[in-house]
Amino acid sequence: MRTAFTADQIRGAEHVLMARLPEGTLMQRAAAGLAAVCADLLGRVYGRRVVLLVGSGDNGGDALYAGERLARRGAWAGAVLAGSKTHEAGLAALRQAGGRVVDGSALDAADLIIDGLVGIGVAGALREPYARLAEDANAARAPIVAVDVPSGVDASSGRVQGAAVRAKVTVTMGACKTGLLVDPGASRTGTVELVDIGLGPYLPDPDVTALTRDDVAGLLPRPGNESDKYRRGVLGVAAGSDLFTGAAVLAVGGALRAGAGMVRYAGPGAPVTQVRSHWPEAVVTELRRPSIEDVGRVQAWVLGPGLGTGDWAHELAAEVLASDVPVLIDADGLTLVAGDRGLLRRTAPVLITPHAGELARLTGADRADIEADRLAHARAAAAELGVTVLLKGSTTVVAESAGPVRVNATGTSWLSTGGTGDVLSGIAGALLAQGLSCYDAASCGAYLHGLAGRLAAEGAPLTAADVATSVPAAIRAVTGGHVR
Ligand SMILES: NC(=O)C1=CN([C@@H]2O[C@H](COP(=O)(O)OP(=O)(O)OC[C@H]3O[C@@H](n4cnc5c(N)ncnc54)[C@H](OP(=O)(O)O)[C@@H]3O)[C@@H](O)[C@H]2O)[C@@H](O)CC1
Ligand SMILES: [K+]
């Protein structure tokens, strides 16, 4: 499990550790790790030009001491001092090793840029001259190594207000920061390298976690000798309408490919015909009225893709939500719930899977605000609505009212195409039916969906149906495909 922490959490742990060590020890550990990554990136250190962007705090101190180490190995090291003050001991060390103070024009001829403008101590958007230096560094041809976080990215949320460094590598100290895993910040980090400075034993529970392949392999249900289709999990899918038939086909497809023992599809005539012809494996009930009475027993429901938002859909949603099994609500289901919050009054668990626009409709928050601070809005919605929230987007986040938010970064931009959300609801719904909690079903579902998208795309456009087709390959890639 990858873990990440807010700036305050890191500072708290640093405080305890620092009190036990001689002054300056942590910064030397940080600088040593930083210099090693820079040296790797340069290949040969001797004679290369390294420009350090140095802010007024300890982030600048890290950069200066790393510059000192590179200068001792024969690099030309020039520090651009951006702040009202500078880490004096770090600057003296750099000078003693042969480094110098330069102005921003040195960026043009740099082989490597070290961004030590600001780290976890930043407040708000970058001020001048930091903002201009960040932009000049981005425009230069040399790769940028960000110290701790790319300057301009809020370490605790991933928020970017104004200019921000776009790094090739981010060398983060002690533990990963939340903002490195959540967009828009995550898209600025490049590769994230962690330098162990001994913080581990002093860290609290993480703010954010990200499942690894092994975590997902451990959580995914696998059939045993005693399994039959009922014990493996029966998923009900209430989706599709005479106007929108594809959503039903895709949601059922996602569920079947993700290992549901059986999928029971319930809907009106047109999608019924489509689901039957695409998926003879599904057990289909054509609804003459909005009732699930004749559908049979299920262990979880997916409600909403392509369902429509009229009275018929509302009645069906009310019936599904009146059941005593977990329900995943997506798409039109979310619009229905936004118009009638009373539908969410139930005791069995609810997982909602909105994108930012749908969450905005549900909570009244501004869509742009949600996109700027995905974590805070997903958490707040989970607490306000009493549900698990899977907020879709370039970094998908899964939040409950308490505990760490799980983020998923397996996705690809090729997944931003119609119908992929329907497939995701099928996958996560199948995992719910197989007994996973909303939190695990959502985070494993997002992981598999992202990976299936990557496998299906291979750098080219994909369709939602391709994603569903690739789900077994994604599961195989996660579990190693061992026959059992
Ligand atoms: N402590 C340790 O032992 C270790 C610390 N470590 C390192 O220290 C870093 C944290 O250092 P930190 O706390 O000094 O804060 P930091 O991120 O350098 O920035 C603070 C300065 O930025 C400025 N500033 C703020 N907002 C701004 C804005 N919007 N726009 C422009 N400027 C702004 C503000 O300047 P001022 O307003 O005072 O001029 C303030 O002084 C951490 O990320 C890690 O790299 C690691 O090596 C591990 C060991
Ligand atoms: K930085």
TrEMBL record:
PANTHER family, alphabetized: ATP-DEPENDENT (S)-NAD(P)H-HYDRATE DEHYDRATASE, ATP-DEPENDENT (S)-NAD(P)H-HYDRATE DEHYDRATASE FAMILY MEMBER
Binding site for (6S)-NADPHX: 58-62, 119-125, 130, 148, 247, 306, 355, 422
Entry protein name: Bifunctional NAD(P)H-hydrate repair enzyme
InterPro entries the UniProt entry points to: CARKD (IPR000631), Nnr (IPR030677), Ribokinase-like (IPR029056), YjeF_N_dom (IPR004443), YjeF_N_dom_sf (IPR036652)
Cofactor note: Binds 1 potassium ion per subunit.
GO biological process: metabolite repair; nicotinamide nucleotide metabolic process
Subunit and interaction comment: Homotetramer.
Keyword Cell inner membrane: no
Residue ranges of domain YjeF N-terminal in the record: 10-205
Cofactor (UniProt): K(+); Mg(2+)
Domain YjeF C-terminal residue range list: 212-478
Keyword tags: ATP-binding, Isomerase, Lyase, Metal-binding, Multifunctional enzyme, NAD, NADP, Nucleotide-binding, Potassium
Matches recorded under NCBIfam families: yjeF_cterm (TIGR00196), yjeF_nterm (TIGR00197)
Gene Ontology terms, MF aspect: ADP-dependent NAD(P)H-hydrate dehydratase activity; ATP binding; metal ion binding; NAD(P)HX epimerase activity
Superkingdom of source: Bacteria
Amino-acid positions noted as binding AMP in the UniProt annotation, renumbered to this chain: 392-396, 421
EC number(s) given by UniProt: 4.2.1.136, 5.1.99.6
PROSITE patterns named among the record's database cross-references: YJEF_C_3, YJEF_N
Function of the molecule: Catalyzes the dehydration of the S-form of NAD(P)HX at the expense of ADP, which is converted to AMP. Together with NAD(P)HX epimerase, which catalyzes the epimerization of the S- and R-forms, the enzyme allows the repair of both epimers of NAD(P)HX, a damaged form of NAD(P)H that is a result of enzymatic or heat-dependent hydration. Catalyzes the epimerization of the S- and R-forms of NAD(P)HX, a damaged form of NAD(P)H that is a result of enzymatic or heat-dependent hydration. This is a prerequisite for the S-specific NAD(P)H-hydrate dehydratase to allow the repair of both epimers of NAD(P)HX.
Source organism of the structure: Nonomuraea zeae
Annotated K(+) binding sites: 59, 115, 151
Protein family membership: Belongs to the NnrD/CARKD family.
UniProt catalytic activity: (6S)-NADHX + ADP = AMP + phosphate + NADH + H(+); (6R)-NADPHX = (6S)-NADPHX; (6R)-NADHX = (6S)-NADHX; (6S)-NADPHX + ADP = AMP + phosphate + NADPH + H(+)
